[in-house]
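Hey all, sorry for the wall of text incoming. These are the two entities for the joint prediction.
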Amino acid sequence: MIDTSIILEKLKNAAKSGDKQELVKELNNIHYADLSELFPLLSSEERPEYFELLQEDKAADLLEELNPQIQVELLDSIPHDKAARIILHMPHDSVADFLADLSDTESESYLAKLPSRVSSQIRELLSYNEESAGGLMNSEVLRVNEAMTVEDTLDYVRKMAESDRVDFYYIYVVDKTNHLRGVLSLRKLITSLPRIKVEEIMATDVIKVNVGDDQETVADTLIKYGFLAIPVVDDYNKLKGIITWDDAQEVSEEETTEDIYASSGISTDIDEDEILVGKISQSVKARTPWLFITLIGEFVAVNVANHFNYTLEALPVIAIFMPLLAGLGGNIGTQSITIIVRGLSTGQISLGSSIYHVFRELRIGLLIGLFFGVIVALTTYLWKGNYVLGIVVGLAMIINMTLAALLGTVTPFALKRFNIDPAVASGPFIATTIDVLGLAIYFSLVTISLGYLS
Amino acid sequence: MIDTSIILEKLKNAAKSGDKQELVKELNNIHYADLSELFPLLSSEERPEYFELLQEDKAADLLEELNPQIQVELLDSIPHDKAARIILHMPHDSVADFLADLSDTESESYLAKLPSRVSSQIRELLSYNEESAGGLMNSEVLRVNEAMTVEDTLDYVRKMAESDRVDFYYIYVVDKTNHLRGVLSLRKLITSLPRIKVEEIMATDVIKVNVGDDQETVADTLIKYGFLAIPVVDDYNKLKGIITWDDAQEVSEEETTEDIYASSGISTDIDEDEILVGKISQSVKARTPWLFITLIGEFVAVNVANHFNYTLEALPVIAIFMPLLAGLGGNIGTQSITIIVRGLSTGQISLGSSIYHVFRELRIGLLIGLFFGVIVALTTYLWKGNYVLGIVVGLAMIINMTLAALLGTVTPFALKRFNIDPAVASGPFIATTIDVLGLAIYFSLVTISLGYLS
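and here's what came out:
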């Protein structure tokens, strides 16, 4: 990895020395991926200054990687004509993503500067749901007619190779009216005889997705088959675009973040960026709903405890063990949820093996519960000198931990069975349920043995 | 996505009908990625039967995707000579991964059947740490000498395209003694004039990794730059292999799982497979250490509560609010940790912005704390008819939630600053700390206002 602070130092020195040519050279030598880490660290005055000095294709590569606010800021800082030229170097899907974040008037002002062929393609992309295959795909595709020869195709590929906007992973074969007929790898193309027609060498069992498919399904398909790109067709099997592995990688990272957020009770209806650096009110909105559900659950726990107020008044010391039971129960329950939810999400665990995992976690919960139950029972006995109290606390611990592991396993499977995303807040839900059940069990045990305790 | 149960049905029907040719045809028409989902669903009697009917290259593709137990089971079920032929179709890194899981004798028995050039390459791969770039790379590389022309290179590429084992993303240019000099994309190669030497058109600022680099760094680098492959060199800049995007994708998924496990207190020293389906004892071993730390933390909490035993005896009812405070504090704290740990892991949050995030989370914690504090205060007052009790519980809630959000933010940053992985069990650690502090604050508030409460 490259150390951005060293590059930044170098640039600032070049800027200070006043040698503009040196600065231009330094800047354009930096890989765009490094620039994209650097630009957010610059002040909003420095950014446009440096951006202006970049070659147009590098500026386009960089722009793709930056967050929406900085994209707008930079394109606004330069003449509209130059902005349009830079946009022309970007893949259409990235342009559509950028324009989608602008107001309609602003977005139109950019579209108006682009050649009509390009702007109409981008308008089409903008019409798809942002989270669908259509919203993710690039509409520029290496496509050839089925009747073309290998030689002609190679010529065409060479010509297209001049453009930055086309991805070179596969060549898609279509009929006269753009129906997807087959696919050809570059490897196959260069190893085939020049005069053969592409339809004779293409693979015809093409794995493809529909424009309306959910982006998560698309990413999973692409990653499962290890493809570099997957074609996107409409309902009539017409080739509309391709989705590449880097897009799938990004989607997969986003979806993982959503799963992780959901499992600690953060709403995923609100955009990740908003939660990280957006308005405080949005962040509060994302976090409050599950806290509210926790509140209701804990009020139930409070009522359970209140129900045993005579027991509490008879023996107030029993209250001090409540956090111990809740803490360990919550912790082992969370471990079980985590293992099952993550396994279901990566595909290492399937619904079919639910029975196996439920019994497995039950055994694990019981084993660990016994271990901790004995420790807690002994410690309590030695501390408070009351062996019945030790047994009660220890027994409550065993039941509590076993139950927590069981609940943490059964709940995600049950949610999945009813087609509910198991990641969605199983965490807070189960922690609260464990609190309620744990208290009920503990206080019942205490109440039963009250005669031997005081 | 393809429905595996339909394929399975089809296969079983073909098997039942006794038409072996039909079964062979059906089987070999299935994509290996689908077969890899299917095979674990078959019984251990069916698996070798079906495996035997696969073409050798398909068998090799399938084998790569299966888990180690099934790999061994299948290769053991066929004659050693055939097993060796199948292995020859696999990329060397996959073979090394498979052999690494076997005993030395077993591993040797396979190596002995391979051509010596191949077996010595695999032996070298086996010598690297499994989690290093060397352990991850494929040693078969498209490599050409710097003095070669474009035409010669194209011929060489065509020849190599026949082999399954070589990845075709870039062509690496080396000098006579295999020092990495540059890199060439297939795009550049096919668009260049035939007589030009590759050294004139290659890119010389190659981004590469060292054999000893950690696999996580390698995956991050590859994903950051959007490369399809990255070359691996030794300390003398000699080209040893390449790592491809699908390997990086797998590493990245593994590392994410480790982060997720760590954050709920599951040790990552033990292999994920062991935790999911291995020996129960291994699973217990992975889960007990952090539970034990939680136990110690909660004993501190118990002692804090015990310290206030006079308060508890004077007013046992206060005990019933303990789960409410702990539950909501734990929940909001977990939200903050989740946001910061995930942000640090994806690079959306850096240490440089820690001050911003600490103050942001402090404001969020205070706002949400105020909201829930007021609800809890009112509910308690209306329920128990004591407004001082309402104020005490509400105030404890506000302080507790604010503190939890703050701790959940500061702790991961602090761990990161000292180069400790912030994912490692921040979760259980903070939940326990919040329990201890929350109880101390609550009981202190109650003790101060005891005169107005009873």
